[in-house]
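Human: I wish I could look at a protein chain and see how it folds. This is the protein in question:
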Amino acid sequence: MAILFSKHKSQEAREARFSQVLQANRQLICKVCYMYASDGEHFNDLYQEVVANIWQGLASYRGTAAMSTWIYRVAINTCVTFYRRHRSHSAATLPIEAVVELPAEEESRAEQLKEMYRLIATLEPMEKALILMWLDERSYDEISDVTGLSRNNVASRLRRIRLKLIEKGQQ
């Protein structure tokens, strides 16, 4: 009986840790899923895929990187894989308000955010991942850890992506 209780307690601890990780990283997961979603249903599918992959991988999380870095890696890899499997969902059309709670800011700031996300949605999957982490003020080293790209490659790609976004914004 003690063995059964021990296994049950271990399962409870695993579920509690999982719940805690999801709660702490919900905005990050939503943001990544949003960038790859074409509508609300697609967003929900992506979110569920990411959550399932976090559940499956949480026991093997080694702690060599920050939890948020690991979550980014899982979320981005899941979304990019999902995107490749379902290419018919190519451009995000989901209004940002449906996913992320915007702080009560002046209307022009909200419009700028919408425009920024619209422009980012036109990028390739890896470009989205890079710019998203950069906007979250992740270091080049952390972005490198998540993507597997060298630090210098991250820096040069981000520069090109920012220039591309500026050019698209001026069109």
About this structure: The helical segments are 2-36, 40-58, 67-85, 107-121, 125-135, 140-147, 151-170. Residues 1-8, 88-106 have pLDDT under 50 and may be disordered.
